[in-house]
Amino acid sequence: MEFNHSFWDTMAERYPHYDDPAMQKDVQRVLAWAKSQGIDFSDRSLLDIGCGTGTVSIPLALEKARVTAIDLSRGMLNALQSDAEALKLCANLKSYQSDWESFPLTQTFDIVLASMTPAISQETHIDKMLNATHAMGLYVGWGRYKTNAFLEALMQAHDAPEKMSGGCIKVADFMHYLDTKELAYSYEFFTTSWEETYTYDEAKTYAAEQLARKNLLPDERKVDAIIRDFMHDETVKIETQAEKGMVLFSKYPSSCPKHT
Ligand SMILES: C[S@@+](CC[C@H](N)C(=O)[O-])C[C@H]1O[C@@H](n2cnc3c(N)ncnc32)[C@H](O)[C@@H]1O
After folding, report:
1. I need a surface site. Which of 18, 76, 79, 191 has the fewest CB within 10 A?
2. pTM (two decimals)
3. What pLDDT, in 10s, does the model give residues 112-127?
């Protein structure tokens, strides 16, 4: 399990906020799909595990859900709180700093949500997610592929043992686990892409952080060569293309028909 606070605190400095257009596109797609499955978020109690900067929590609070948002990173939560304050959402958006494993579950929620978070990286984390709701949950994770030519070149040059997975349980594995519990769910996959732009120095920091996640030290010469390959007009452009998936599951098998 990933407990790397400092990695996520550093990521928080440039992680997209709720109003970032590329992020908004994916989040609105997920929420529209959930609504098409009959979910009304208004006045529902909702737990967002690994909420980050509030990319999903804030749109849900804007829809009048009563959101409890947890994350292990203080940096991410600071970003969420400052946006929540600006939007006057503090009455229905509470945030707590905690990792998912040690978060004390003192109540169950109408809806439990986890989106793109390594908080859900083992089956025991899914079990706790199931225990956190008396009704239903929404899981958003990686689908069948995620390509990022910069990261692939970086990892290959440093002989990293495996491809980047992002840490969270893949959607197919999440659904497989629900099958073993005989829980009903519906799901959909979609493709997405986004571009990040960095200065040379920022790209160097980004490369060092990504290597550190795999316990690798940067080879300065190799990193420099890769950055220069991706540099156009003094800007390093890094594009990611991926498939994401969303799963809506119910604790009551009959109320959420399963699509196969
Ligand atoms: C990629 S961000 C996703 C943020 C948001 N859910 C979204 O969909 O945009 C992953 C978040 O999970 C948090 N995280 C990672 N491991 C965690 C854990 N064990 N418990 C709680 N939060 C965790 C990180 O701090 C980070 O904010």
Report:
1. 191
2. 0.90
3. 999 999 999 999 999 9
Contact present, 72 and 1 (Cβ < 8 Å): no
* C-alpha separations of 127 from 131, 162, 166, 170, 174 in Å: 6, 27, 20, 15, 11
User: Taking the CB of residue 11, how many other CB atoms lie within 10 A of it?
Assistant: 17
Cα–chain-centroid distance for residue 123?
17
Q: Answer for the pair 238, 245: CB distance below 8 angstroms, yes or no.
A: no
Tell me, using a 6 A CB cutoff, whether residue 73 lines ligand 1: yes
| C-alpha of residue 32 to centroid of ligand 1, in Å | 22
- Regarding the beta carbon of 92 and ligand 1, being less than 6 Å apart is answered no
Query: Taking Cα atoms as reference points, which of 65, 53, 61, 64 lies closest to residue 23?
Result: 53
